[in-house]
Structure formats: structure tokens, C-alpha cells
Specification:
The chain has five helices and nine strands. The chain is α+β, with helices and mostly antiparallel strands. The strands form two sheets. Strands 3-2-1-9-4 form a five-stranded mixed beta sheet, covered by helices on one side. A four-stranded mixed beta sheet has the order 5-6-7-8.
Length: about 200
């Protein structure tokens, strides 16, 4: 009888652990689109967020919240208020912002900002169920820099100038030979500087 009771208790505890693990709120933040997708027992939501602006970073990866604070003041950034803070990595948190006009584009020092009502809703869900936070994508500010660099390189390449030839990645040393000013490749090889 003891064996059956112990077995029953073990099965019940495994069942309860499985239900608790399933109950965690799933929070997915996409840095590229500046959107947060939330799935929980109370429903599914998609909200605009603001993540790190140019010069700052929002860490990517998977996290679990380690601290919740209904009201926090940032010591690093002039005691700025961070209502409904859900801390997930070092000083990084998901929290409410009064700068709702900036939502949907990068604007923070690295935290993930939400509209006050959405932050309060998320805070209550995480408090009740726990959470898994996943941050992925590329910040639009970083993407814009790469895109701008690629456009600049394409313009140089289209002009077929000496500068474009220097900017082009290559392993051929003759790729940097000037187009004009030397009578032949052989003459350039003997005197590449042109003195």
C-alpha cells in the first residue's frame, strides 16, 4: 500500500511540475520589427516596444526573470522611473515608459519599453505564472548602418574608381593597380609608387 501511495504522489508531482512549466508566460521580442509577442493562460498579445537606440545594446538570447519591481528608479540614468520592471539580465528589464510616441522604434538605453497599460498587464501575468523571455532579430539602427554601408560601396563600385578598387575585398595584389598613369603592368610592378 505504501508503494502505491508513493507512486501516486510521484505521478501527481510530475503532473503538477509539467502543468507549472506549461503555465509560464512566453515573451518573444523581435528587435527587427520592434514588437513583443506574448502567450499566456490569459491570452495572446502583440505590442509595440522600444529597444536599444544607436550606440546601445539590447541583449539577445533566452532568459528567465530574476526580479520584479512594481516601481524601480534607474541609478545609472538619473533616477529615471521604470514602472512594472521585469529584470531578466543584469540591469536590463522590460518596463513601462511615458514616451509612448517612440514605441515601435529603437529609443532606449537597452531596456525593453512598453506602454504603461501593457507593462502592467505583462507584470501581473509574469507575477502569477512566471515567464520565458526570448529576444531575437537585429536592431533596425544596426541594420540601417549595414544597409547604408552596402549602398555606399555599391556607388563606389559603379563609378569604377581607384577608391572603389581599394574598398573592394580581394586577395589579388594587382587589383589595386592604378588604371591610368603607367605604361604597362610590368612598369607598375617595377615602380608601384610612381616616383
Amino acid at each position: 500500500m505504501r508503494f502505491l501511495t508513493a507512486l501516486f504522489m510521484l505521478v501527481c508531482s510530475v503532473f503538477m511540475l509539467t502543468r507549472t512549466a506549461d503555465a509560464a508566460v512566453s515573451i518573444s521580442i523581435d528587435l527587427t520589427t520592434q514588437r513583443m509577442h506574448v502567450n499566456s493562460n490569459s491570452g495572446s498579445y502583440t505590442w509595440a516596444v522600444s529597444t536599444a537606440r544607436s550606440g546601445f545594446v539590447t541583449p539577445r538570447g533566452s532568459y528567465r526573470p530574476y526580479m520584479l519591481k512594481k516601481m524601480h528608479y534607474s541609478r545609472k540614468y538619473h533616477n529615471s522611473p521604470m514602472p512594472h520592471s521585469i529584470f531578466f539580465s543584469g540591469g536590463y528589464a522590460i518596463h513601462a515608459t511615458s514616451a509612448v510616441g517612440a514605441l515601435g522604434r529603437p529609443a532606449s538605453h537597452g531596456c525593453i519599453r512598453l506602454a504603461p497599460g501593457n507593462a502592467a498587464t505583462l507584470y501581473k501575468m509574469v507575477q502569477a505564472e512566471g515567464a520565458r523571455i526570448t529576444i531575437s532579430g537585429t536592431s533596425p539602427a544596426v541594420y540601417a548602418k549595414v544597409k547604408s554601408h552596402n549602398r555606399s560601396y555599391a556607388k563606389l563600385k559603379a563609378k569604377n574608381t581607384y577608391a572603389a578598387r581599394q574598398a573592394a575585398p580581394t586577395s589579388n595584389p594587382l587589383a589595386f593597380a592604378p588604371l591610368r598613369g603607367t605604361s604597362s603592368i610590368k612598369a607598375w610592378q617595377l615602380n608601384p609608387v610612381g616616383n
